[in-house]
Design a protein that fits this description.
Blueprint lengths: L5 H4 L18 H10 L4 H8 L3 H8 L7 H10 L22 E3 L4 E7 L9 E12 L11 E8 L2 E5 L2 E5 L4 E4 L5 E4 L7 E8 L4
Antiparallel strand pairs: 1-2, 2-3, 3-9, 4-7, 4-9, 5-6, 5-8
Length: 203
Amino acid sequence: MVRTTARQADSAPGEAEAAPKRDQLNFGGVLRERRRALNLTLHDVSEKTGLTKGFLSDIERDKTSPSVASLVSLCDALNLPVGDLFATTRNVLVRAAERQPIKFGGIGVSDHLLTPSHGVRMQAIWSEIAPGGTGGEQLYSLRSEEELVLVISGDLALNIEGEETVLHVGDSITFDPRRPHSFRNPSQEVGTTAVFIMTPPPA
C-alpha cells in the first residue's frame, strides 16, 4: 500500500506545485569549492583564464559580477558546467513573483530563471537589461545547440561573430550559441526585457 503524506493529501490531483521563493543565488562558494577540489590555486586559475587573482578572489566572495564571457571561461577552466552554478529544486510551475534570481554575468543585467536548471531539456532566462547594459564587450560561446532570444520590451542589439542585429519588441532570433556572441541595450534611456531560451541547457 502506498502511503500518502498530509502535504500530498492536501494537494489537488494533477495540480502543479509552485516554486518556493528563494533569495538571490550566489555562486562564488561553488566556484571556490570546485577550485579547491581540483587542488588549484588562484594563480593557476588566473593562468588558465587570463583573469587577475584579485578579480577571481572577488568573484569567489560574491563581491563582483563577471561578464558572461569571463564566467564561461572560468567554468571551462574548472571543468564545471555553467548550469551547475544555478541548481534549483525541480519546478512544474514558476510564478512571476517567485522566479529564481541568478547572476549570469554582464553589466546592468538582472537575470531570473524561468525553468529548473536540471532535469529539463532547455533553460529559459528572463533578463532585464538597464539602459546601456551589456553581456560584456568580449564575445562568448555557450555549450548548447540552439538559442532563441525574444524581446519583450525595449530594443536589444545582438552581436553574433561581429555582425550586429537590432531586435525590437516582439522580434525573435534563433542561432547556434556556440558561435561567439554578446548583447547590449542600445538605448541610454529605456530598459530592455528579453527572454533567452537555450536547448539543451548550457553544459
